[in-house]
């Protein structure tokens, strides 16, 4: 049959490409080994050897694709006047033969665009697009799509057998690239980690991935539209296209929580990009350990943009003149630091540019110099005195304990943590800083008792953003200084050291470690790294103060902002994309793209959740599904007495239905521990994926807080007490809130196959 012939054809080509890949690896190994034992005659030779060794190691790292398919597609162009059409295989890296003829092209190369963007209306010159399924270096299937030429003629082989099937796709659905390959990819069981989608990127996704680097790109996309995967693939594409710039400036990817970062951490390395920084907003604020959680109303208040002025005022209250004169011994004499001197110095310092700690030095120098002049006029009668120069006298005065104590009272040297801790622990300071900005109730919300030592302070996520703001105001406490940088023990990750022989191995290891910079500049905690491009996912949940943390890391104004206002679930979420951009990029007009097609969330689930979205965010349209799961959502209402047994039974049914896939039980955050215990009591191995001792999201059954489920996907989901989730942020225990409904919408749209609901209290009307 034609299908078997095409598989054999692609297998033959795969064998050829794999042989070429092995030859490329051998060339890189030879380069590496030659550099390891080369004779060095001078400094120039050493530099050259380091460059060659670095190039060889980097190339070996690029060519190490593990058990992933070398290529996944092929594009055939329409024949030219001579009856010849170009053919290209598309894969995860470029491979050439001995004569440097391309066998496989990188998916990010411009010529590969047609593989993702060609449609029946716009064929982009293609006559055929082929999706190739490969497992363990064996071609297991092909799927061909044919395109009409400029005259509308469709040239199909006489014995062509279409490998694609419409099974599982929505009738009258959208034009999809490689529907069979897409359906197969979507139907695979979840692994607990996000994978790359380079084999099944669709046209609207590819357009976002290949958007130009400069400026702000805003991507709004509902559940299952692939916005997170698109954002990560865009980071890989930009690094490929602008490598010289972005490897120097850096790329930052920001996610909503550590669990989400664990979920996506393998995507970029699988695409050959390991030099990207992944972090949460709080993770960008160094030396701050998050050990507590604020009440929602406190979290909302701390994220309010008013806190910028509150912190600025709080710092100003720490810059104050002395109330009384202070006597300072200098040698055998005593001089007086008068309160009016300090008042004048403080006023002048407040008008100076720079941060607080920088201006502190100016205050100290001014006061010490003034006292030194007084001392010289009164006590130094001739040049034979041991200390007579004003500069020397000033230094002597500044070194006295009395002067240091006075200066600390006038203009203390502070850290961001100290400023915030002092502010939140003193109602009087809060009232002074919040006058006209905060109500008395809000001041009481912000107040918390002081801790006796800095180690005891239980900082929250919202505190981290405030500390970052405070650090900008106070500035570094000390000057940067050179500091030995430990050798990166992972410098040879991905390199087979056993391939070396004898002294080659030791020499290669030594030279590879030389590539690590031996010195680095130690940064004060008030200084931070900036990035040439920033990708921020689930951006709708960031508070204005968190957005300011992100803005400070922006080096060039190049950002990809991804999210869904229909899934804005935090107390301090931005009200709209316009409000978010007003903080993050006020002087830049973004390019906005809406992802409208849901690939992973099935039609049955989106239909079930549509009423909840309509109530929570009536201005948003739900995404259009492309596939059906074949099963309708299950709703079980039970009595309180039967709840535990019903939950255990329903969860076991879902586990059996999607095995070997993964199941999540999603509940209100306050009940995670309770539900874990209930399921374990019923003989099910349920885990909280936040527990570092567990398998995390790789476990077969996890229990998640609805508040932290954004961006995650599972084969099946059991939503527990949707009424309690929809009640989030309400003043009573029965009302629903827009934020609660958005949180419920997130919970309902996490499955890729099956959804179930179990409740013993009244269901929200959007589900009834």
Give a structural overview:
The protein contains 27 helices and 23 strands. With 768 residues, it is of the alpha/beta class. The chain has 4 domains: 2-163, no CATH class; 203-286 and 528-597, P-loop containing nucleotide triphosphate hydrolases (Rossmann fold, 3-Layer(aba) Sandwich); 296-472, no CATH class; 603-759, 3-Layer(aba) Sandwich (Rossmann fold). Strands 3-4-2-1-5-6 form a 6-stranded mixed beta sheet, with helices on one face. The two termini are 52 Å apart.
Q: State the separation between the terminal residues, measured CA to CA.
A: 52 Å
Task: Using the CA coordinates, give the radius of gyration.
Answer: 32 Å
What's the helical proportion of residues? 25-40%
- Strand ordering within the main sheet: 3-4-2-1-5-6
Tell me the number of strands: 23
Apparent shape: globular
Which percent band covers the strand fraction?
15-25%
The secondary structure category is: alpha/beta
The poorly predicted ranges are 161-167, 482-492, 514-521
Structurally, the number of domains stands at: 4
Mean pLDDT: 83
The largest β sheet comes out as: 6 strands, mixed
Distinct helical segment count:
27
Oligomer: single chain
